[in-house]
């Protein structure tokens, strides 16, 4: 089964790659797997997915952000090639973080699109990648900074531990600039500067529309401030301002 990779990230190139994957699947009548796609890339491609082919998204575990698109002539052929690699670590002397693991992988001359979600949790490193790359990674990634590691395939599918805290924010409206101002405790003018500087995304897509109206379950990311999910309106103040509830990733 073929793995499809691409390097350009602009929308036109990404759509062209999707057309190529679909053509391969239709012509060869065999499944085609993409590389790992970011949430923004997934959101962009979703409206263009084919009606005449079976498909599904898979990141290896529930809650995965980075996923592969699997295309096949029949639903029965939508098998995944994603494997989970883990290594036990002692964090008594060396405190590893996500950038440390990602940097070590990049030093193997590998591309970010060849890996799905990866993280460091107490006592363990978890990496999702493709079956045909797993052995290479296990053999070559044996040290991160001063810490020796031994990666191996895992039959378990670990899930990232996501911590969230609930925030209550009072805003004049659910316009994006008002919401950013309330979440980040800044003036509306400053919020508009961030939006126009393309530092704000909604549902993993960068927006420059200050008057965009946010809705329940929208994921709002502000560079340098964090990621938030709008859970809903919880009432109004006496001055008719909206009391909105958010969850913040911590």
UniProtKB/TrEMBL annotation:
Keyword field: RNA-binding
Residues in RNA-binding S4 domain copies: 174-234
Signal peptide interval: none
GO molecular function: RNA binding
CDD domains linked to this entry: S4
SMART domains the record matches: S4
A Pfam family the protein falls into: YlmH_RBD
Protein name as catalogued: RNA-binding S4 domain-containing protein
Species the sequence originates in: Holdemania massiliensis
């Amino acid at each position: 089964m073929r793995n499809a990779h691409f390097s350009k990230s602009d929308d036109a190139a990404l759509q062209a790659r999707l057309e190529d994957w679909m053509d391969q699947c239709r012509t060869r009548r065999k499944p085609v797997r993409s590389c790992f796609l970011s949430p923004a890339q997934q959101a962009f491609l979703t409206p263009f997915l084919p009606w005449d082919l079976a498909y599904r998204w898979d990141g290896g575990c529930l809650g995965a952000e980075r996923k592969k698109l699997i295309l096949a002539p029949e639903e029965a052929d939508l098998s995944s090639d994603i494997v989970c690699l883990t290594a036990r670590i002692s964090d008594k002397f060396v405190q590893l973080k996500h950038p440390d693991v990602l940097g070590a992988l990049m030093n193997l001359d590998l591309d970010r699109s060849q890996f799905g979600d990866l993280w460091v949790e107490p006592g363990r490193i978890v990496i999702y990648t493709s079956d045909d790359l797993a052995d290479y990674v296990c053999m070559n990634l044996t040290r991160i900074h001063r810490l020796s590691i031994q990666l191996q395939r895992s039959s378990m599918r670990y899930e990232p531990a996501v911590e969230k805290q609930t925030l209550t924010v009072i805003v004049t409206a659910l316009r994006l600039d008002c919401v950013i101002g309330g979440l980040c405790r800044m003036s509306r003018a400053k919020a508009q500067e961030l939006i126009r500087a393309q530092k704000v995304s909604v549902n993993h897509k960068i927006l420059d529309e200050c008057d965009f109206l946010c809705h329940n379950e929208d994921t709002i990311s502000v560079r340098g401030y964090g990621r938030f999910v709008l859970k809903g309106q919880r009432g109004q103040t006496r001055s008719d301002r909206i009391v909105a509830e958010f969850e913040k990733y911590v």
